[in-house]
Amino acid sequence: MYCATIKITTCRPGALSQRSRSSTARSHLTSKPDKICSTGSRIVCKTRCAAGSENEESSRRGLLLSGSSLVALQAFSFTPKAFADDDFGLFYGAANPPATPNKVGGTTKQFARYSFLYPTAWTEEVITKVEKGTNGTDCRFVSSSRKKEKVFLLTLSNEGGSKRFNMEQDPITLLTSLTGSLVTFQDALAEAEVSVKTVDKDGKQFFEYRLEGADSYLVSITVEDGRVFGLFVNAPARGFNADGEMLQKVVESFQTYPNA
User: Fold this and answer.
1) Which residues does the UniProt record annotate as the domain PsbP C-terminal (predicted)?
2) Where are the alpha helices (H) located in the chain, listed in sequence order?
3) Which architecture, in CATH terms, is 85-256?
């Protein structure tokens, strides 16, 4: 298993780049002499990474340079909390095509392509044809309007395309490919501090992401039968902190199933 933290930087004319720090991992970032990099927003120039020591390089297992996003490896942990069984329901989703909008209720386990737990106090919303056709939204549950928390699932298939979704891609490339048409998520991604780790569930690999900012997300992504599935849990910063254990339980429950 590996874990990663993304430090978003911008570059402008100036002196050599400064040291970028995180709570558990450090790397010395250098760029050309005519640029200076500082944290805060999406990278607009490529940087080169030099390890401070052999031990540091070993602990990081290198840096992932995906497009213009710099990914430094770092662990994050979470302590789960016990909940009553009736606090959550189990949703089975069918990954319906865009021609089948305006449905709620999911499907049965026999025909499910994915499943996850959701808070029973939340309400399932109808997904429109536009949502299904443009970004692959298959279902969505929302909390009260006061808390503004939600969980939704995106699924897309690119079978026959020149670049298929697969878990061999670096996790940031996979995330951005799936969410390219979600403007609000792309804005959150540009502003948030992002962590990612790989998780094995019964031999199946998942990428789990944590985006912390004014608009925070927990995300779990995997690929099944050439189709990418992504479960997104979203909350404002206050709700993300207050209900973090519940939101984590939802995203950790995410499973996918092979096409019958």
Assistant:
1) 112-255
2) 54-60, 129-135, 171-178, 183-191, 237-242, 244-252
3) 3-Layer(aba) Sandwich (3.40)
